[in-house]
Design goal:
Blueprint lengths: L2 H32 L2 H12 E6 L6 E2 L5 E13 L8 H19 L4 H13 L5 E7 L1 H7 L9 H4 L1 E10 L7 H4 L1 E2 L7 E2 H5 L1 H5 L3 E8 L3 E4 L13 E4 L3 H18 L3 E8 L5 E9 L5 E2 L4 H4 L9 H10 L8 E3 L4 E4 L2 E4 L8 E3 H6 L3 H12 L3 H10 L17 E2 L11 H6 L4 E2 L2 H12 L4 E2 L4 E6 L2 E5 L4 E3 L5 H17 L13 E8 L15 E9 L6 E8 L8 H4 L1 H14 L5 H5 L14 E2 H11 L2 E4 L6 E7 L2 E6 L15 H10 L3 E5 L3 E5 L12 E7 L2
Parallel strand pairs: 2-10, 28-30, 31-33
Antiparallel strand pairs: 1-8, 2-3, 3-4, 3-5, 6-7, 8-9, 10-21, 11-12, 11-26, 12-13, 14-17, 15-16, 18-19, 20-23, 21-22, 24-25, 25-26, 27-29, 29-30, 32-33
Helix pairs in contact: 3-4, 10-20, 12-14, 12-18
């Protein structure tokens, strides 16, 4: 082949290749333009526009009277768009120095020069969603809105405000483990009511269309939400804050006095099962007593003598014993195989009645009775514990309940002494709340009710779901056995191991417990030292039980460890507080035999009709400064009360300082605000100053304080 033909052939191959490549490119363009245009457009939009979730306001957790236990305190995230498209060059040059100065004065964290450099850099980079500050409170936000440039608003001043919330417990450590928390980390945890009712508290998320802007950040396309979020429900608990405070402080004092490891105090309404107080205090690394774990529901231990009630009730139910039968305890020592069972009474109690044996808490007596009547019939004995509901979880409204341990004959760890040991509280494990539920059933004429921690869900103050009392077992035994059990429990306080708790005003019934604490594989003794668990569980008033209560103190270490001396005083203090604040427990008040006469009481500002009715009921003279006034402020004057007019203007933030919670909430919601209450009593502080234009949906934090 000649050189010319070779060149022409090569040129032709290249030409055809280029032609085919060009045709391929054209074909691909046509395909993309007309066939895949929809899919590509969709992908492009996904890269520049997306739906972003809007987190709703989380619901509050409330005490039984509506006071806040946990709430989300409103804070704000401040972003700015100072790009030339929003803020003209002339305005930026004129105002940047004064804006930087005001930011430095408001936040007190950087110099004016630092803020100026920061904002100039954000403008140069055309960052249209620059993060200026997190966790800005309402007062700081109010000042920001008045700053140069920012005072022009979002569209002309570039101020972008996003509300966030921080979970806050206004009463600190009170019932903290039961209220609980959420941890969203990889190894996160859901604790207490916050965790178990997360779905109800969280609400329903909304959606907002966001667009990517230079700088790789996302900002809203417009101010309207595509799908509005729905705020979470408020969870109303059964907890009474006043009693919770008494229980927790009484427990704290005893733990400190006896240098104990940790402790529990629970108060429950007998008929409903509503838990009015649940205190859990343990020693932290710094040696302070705090709510570090929910021992009440999560710690299962050998209960000791408090379980003797179940043993005696089993024998009473089977007709093997009666209260006046006698049992010889000898010198307080009795040996079963290689195990010696002893009583704490020096020299023993000798021959005593069954009722006395229970009142004096004789280990020898109860183990002798159980071994005498149930040896060879172990299943019959254990079945009674099952009938009492002691072998199953209570099925609480929150997570973390420990599994009870009630051994069954013939299983791996059952031995010849197991039944005797079980009879006075060893080789069996229960949580404090499981023991309390059993005693509560005795006080409740045999009805075992499920303990209740949450009684309703509310949305905007309206009840959307109510949790009613639930009976687990209608009757744990016969009424004859219940009556005898209650008689034994009264004897413990009248002349038994808890005689120090006897009260002439308030009759208490209950049982002491002192148990040695097992130390893993070391048994009950570490060297020469033994750790104990002291407890007292019962109910009051003994003749007509309204409340049941248990107190457990773990490892008191100052040589005092008996239940009546360590746990008993806490029980008595709680009972006396409840008695003092519960009118239904006072016969004189119920029957109207006494009428208290006092001076003019402290009155809150509020609705005129309510105040007039109150003053009329109390027989106190009053006068009004304005007959047409709807809202008034009472003022004591000589022998009467003057009701001065209080100005309330629609659509403006009301002045609610001095008002009670009910009136303050009503006026706040009427103005379109979302009130958040902290504390109790009268309003002493409000987060938004009165008289300014109210913005619908803004959180309105009201701080209340008792007189």
């Amino acid at each position: 082949m000649s050189i010319k033909k070779d060149i022409l052939w090569r040129f032709g191959v290249v030409y055809v290749g280029i032609l085919l490549l060009g045709l391929g490119i054209v074909a691909r363009i046509i395909y993309l333009q007309f066939v895949e245009v929809g899919e590509l457009t969709k992908k492009a939009q996904q890269l520049s526009v997306r739906n972003m979730e809007i987190i709703p306001n989380r619901g509050n957790i409330l005490a039984c009277d509506g006071r806040l236990l946990a709430t989300s305190v409103p804070y704000y995230e401040i972003r700015v768009d100072l790009s030339p498209a929003v803020v003209p060059n002339s305005l930026f040059r004129e105002s940047i120095d004064s804006l930087a100065l005001r930011l430095s004065q408001i936040f007190k964290d950087k110099s004016p020069q630092a803020y100026k450099s920061e904002l100039i850099k954000a403008r140069k980079e055309n960052n249209r969603y620059y993060l200026l500050k997190r966790k800005v409170d309402f007062e700081q936000l109010r000042q920001l809105k008045a700053c140069p440039i920012f005072r022009l608003g979002k569209n002309k001043g570039g101020l972008i405000i996003e509300q966030t919330g921080v979970r806050f417990m206004p009463h600190g450590d009170l019932a903290a483990r039961t209220i609980g928390y959420l941890s969203r980390s990889e190894n996160g945890n859901e604790v207490g009511i916050e965790g178990s009712f997360d779905t109800e508290l969280a609400g329903v998320k909304g959606l907002k269309v966001m667009q990517r802007v230079p700088g790789g950040v996302w900002m809203p396309i417009n101010d309207e939400n595509e799908i509005e979020p729905k705020d979470g429900y408020d969870v109303v608990t059964t907890i009474d804050l006043n009693i919770q405070d008494v229980a927790q402080e009484a427990l704290r004092r005893q733990l400190e006095l006896h240098n104990a490891q940790h402790g529990v105090a629970i108060l429950m309404e007998v008929q409903s099962g509503e838990i009015k107080a649940i205190a859990n205090l343990g020693r932290d690394e710094a040696g302070r007593y705090r709510e570090v774990f929910n021992y009440a529901i999560g710690e299962s231990t050998e209960p000791g003598s408090t379980i003797k009630l179940a043993s005696y009730m089993a024998a009473l139910e089977d007709g093997y014993i009666d209260l006046n039968d006698t049992i010889d305890t000898g010198k307080g020592k009795w040996k079963i195989y290689d195990k010696e069972i002893t009583d704490s009474h020096k020299g023993g109690l000798g021959k005593i009645t069954v009722k006395q044996a229970f009142a004096y808490s004789s280990n020898v007596a109860v183990s002798k009775i159980i071994m005498q009547y149930y040896k060879g019939k172990e299943i019959q004995f254990v079945k009674h514990f099952y009938d009492f509901g002691l072998n199953k979880k209570l099925g609480l409204q929150i997570q973390g309940e420990a599994e009870p341990l009630v051994k069954y004959p013939g299983t791996k760890y059952w031995s010849g002494i197991t039944m005797a040991m079980m009879s006075f509280g060893y080789e069996i494990k229960l949580t404090p709340l499981q023991i309390l539920a059993f005693y509560n059933a005795v006080a409740n004429n045999g009805r075992l009710v499920r303990p209740l921690l949450v009684k309703e869900l509310r949305f905007n103050g309206r009840t959307v779901k109510r949790f009613e009392p639930e009976v687990i077992i209608p009757s744990i035994c016969s009424m004859s056995t219940i009556r005898k059990a209650r008689e034994m429990l009264e004897a413990v306080v009248k002349n038994g191991t808890a005689k120090n708790l006897d009260d002439s005003l308030l009759q208490i019934a209950g049982k002491t417990g002192t148990a040695q604490i097992a130390i893993k594989n070391l048994g009950y003794r570490k060297g020469t030292s033994i750790s104990y668990q002291a407890s007292f569980v019962g109910y009051f008033p003994a003749n007509n039980p309204k409340y049941s209560c248990i107190v457990v103190v773990n490892a008191p270490s100052n040589d005092v460890y008996y239940g009546n001396l360590v746990a008993g005083p806490i029980f008595k203090e709680i009972a006396q507080k409840v008695y003092a604040t519960s009118f239904e427990l006072h016969n004189e008040v119920i029957k109207g035999k006494r009428r208290l006469k006092t001076a003019t009481p402290e009155l809150s500002d509020g609705f005129v009709t309510d105040l007039e009715k109150t003053l009329q009921e109390l027989g106190i003279s009053y006068d009004k400064s304005d007959d047409n006034a709807l809202w008034v402020s009472p003022k004591k004057q000589d022998s009467e009360v003057i009701l001065n007019k209080r100005l309330v203007i629609d659509n403006l933030v009301p002045n609610v300082v001095g008002m009670g919670a009910k009136d303050a909430v009503y006026l706040s919601e009427k103005a379109g605000l979302r009130p958040v209450l902290i504390g109790f009593g009268k309003v002493v502080k409000q987060s938004i100053p009165p008289g300014i234009q109210a913005r619908k949906g803004d959180s309105f934090v009201l701080t209340l304080q008792a007189n």
